[in-house]
Amino acid sequence: MKAKKIIYQIILITLMALWIPISLDKFINYDLFHSAMIQQPFSDQLGKYLAYILPALELAVGLLFIVPKMRLWAFSLSSLLMVVFVAYVSLAVLKVWGKIPCGCGLVFHQLGWVSHLWLNIGFLLMSLLGLRLELYFLKNQASENRFIKNSANTDFSDGQSVNETKVPVKSNSSPRLQKE
Q1: Whole-structure pTM value
Q2: Can you say how many angstroms the Cα of residue 118 is from the centroid of all Cα atoms in its chain?
Q3: Alpha helix positions (H), the chain
Q4: Res 180: pLDDT
Q5: What's the Cα-to-Cα distance from 17 to each of 25, 44, 75, 116, rounded to whole Å?
Q6: How far is residue 61's CA from residue 55's CA, in Å, rounded to a whole number?
Q7: CA–CA distance from 107 to each of 21, 34, 97, 102, 148 (Å)?
Q8: Distance CA 35, CA 168 (A)
Q9: Is there a contact between 72 and 141 (Cβ–Cβ < 8 Å)?
Q10: Residue 119 pLDDT > 80, yes or no?
Q11: Can you tell me the distance from the alpha carbon of 19 to that of 36, in angstroms, rounded to the nearest whole number?
């Protein structure tokens, strides 16, 4: 269980370190990112739309990891984004559209398409493993909560509820007075 928690924390920190800086870089260098999105092999209108939506969505995913109750959403959205990115980069590797510019931020735009594909597959696997661990911890936490709730109202010695358990009352009077 301890190893799972360590792996979970590493994945959590890694994905936050992926999504937050990349989204901020796209906001900071918005003109460059917008230009790269317009040059993608889909309509200019879709490119403009994605230029607005992607950085905000990536930042939201990164920030959702900070809030423990939102991590299921964060891992789910991270997995979904990585599936889309892996599919898109796979098509680029297959040269379906010919030469296309990379709209990625930071050092990722310097990678070739094959390296980019492997990196995205790695982040996809990491997101999916994080999602699986999140579900595992939520399931165990729910089981523990049910156990704690049930054990708080149960006396395990005879199976009676604490509210139903009869506790003998000890008399403070002397034994001699009780006989009379």
Answers
A1: 0.76
A2: 21
A3: 2-28, 30-38, 44-64, 71-93, 113-152, 175-179
A4: 45
A5: 12, 30, 14, 17
A6: 10
A7: 11, 17, 23, 11, 48
A8: 81
A9: no
A10: yes
A11: 19
